[in-house]
Amino acid sequence: MQLKPNDLLLFARVVDEGSFSKAGQRLAVPVSTVSRRITALETALGERLILRTTRKLTVTELGQAVLEHAHQVQQSAEAAGALADNRKLEPAGRLRITMATDLGLMAPFLAEFLARYPAIVLEVDVSARFVDLIGENFDVALRLGALKDDATLAARHVCDVCGGLYASPAYLKKHGTPRDPNALLEHHAVYTQRRRACRRRESWETHPTWFCEWLLTARASCSPSTAARSPT
Questions:
Q1: Across the chain, what does the average pLDDT equal?
Q2: 6-10: which pairs have CB atoms within 8 A and are 24 or more residues apart?
Q3: pLDDT band for position 225 (cuts 50, 70, 90)
Q4: Which range (52-56, 101-105, 114-118, 186-190) has the least confidence?
Q5: Domains with residue ranges and CATH for the chain
Q6: What distance in Å separates the CA atoms of residue 127 and residue 165, rounded to the nearest whole number?
Q7: At the N or C end, where does the chain have fewer CB atoms within 10 A?
C-alpha cells in the first residue's frame, strides 16, 4: 500500500487544529480539498480515521496509530526545512571548484571566502583540462575566455583579466628593453610545465615561450634577473 506523505501531513494538521476549516486556513487550502484528501486516505487504509460531527472530531483507534506516523513525517519535513534555513544563514558543507592554472590570481579571493564562511570545506582542482562538472561532481568551474554552449550549465561573468609584460627597472637597465616579441627570445624567461592529457596517455610538456603563471608574474617582475609575460 502506497500512502501519499502529503495526505499524512494534512491528516496530522486536521487533528492538531481540531477542525477541517482551521487546517485549511493554516495551509491555505480549500476545506473541500482537505475533506477530499482525508477521505482518500481513509479509502486507501480501508477504515475511518476521523469521526466527524457538527461540533467535534473524534480520532479512531486506527487514526491514533496513523497519527503517530503522520507526526513523524511532519517532524522529518520540519527538520529538513530547518536544515535548509540554517544553510541559508551560514553556508556549510563541501564546495568543489576546478580552475585553470592561469587563474592562480584567485588564491587571495578563495582565502577571503574561507575566512568569511568557515563552515565550508573547499576542494580546489587546479588543472588545464576541461572537466565534466556533473560526472566528476564539481560545483563550480572558473574558466578564462569563451565557453562552450551547454544547456545543462549556468555561466556567469565574474571579472575581466588583462595580461601584460612586466620587468623590473633593474632588469631593463642590465639587459635592455625588448622592442618587439622576437627580441624576447634573447632575454631570460620563466618556463613552466603543463600537463596535456588525452584518452590514451598523459604527458608533460615544457613550453619554450614567454609566459608564467599569474602568481609568478608579479613576483618574477620584482627580480632584477627575470622578465615575464602573463599567459594569453
A1: 76
A2: 6/37, 7/37, 7/38, 7/40, 7/41, 8/41, 8/66, 8/69, 8/70, 8/73, 8/74, 9/70, 9/73, 9/74, 9/77, 10/34, 10/37, 10/38, 10/41
A3: very low
A4: 101-105
A5: 5-89 (1.10.10.10), 90-161 (3.40.190.10), 165-229 (no CATH)
A6: 24
A7: N
221 Rama sector, left if φ>0, alpha if ψ -120 to 50, beta otherwise: alpha
**pLDDT of 204:** 42
Q: Which residues contact 105 (CB under 8 A, 6 or more apart)?
A: 161, 214, 215
In the numeric block, which cell numbers belong to residue 34?
482537505
Of the candidates 228, 229, 226, 217, the residue with the CA atom closest to the CA atom of residue 170: 226
Longest dimension (CA), the chain: 101
Q: Which residue matches cell numbers 612586466?
A: 166
Determine the Cα–Cα distance for residues 157 and 178; give it in Å rounded to an integer: 34
Nearest to 217 by CA among 99, 77, 104, 100: 104
Residues 212-221 pLDDT 10s? 333 333 333 3
SS3 80: helix
CB 102 within 8 A of CB 214: yes
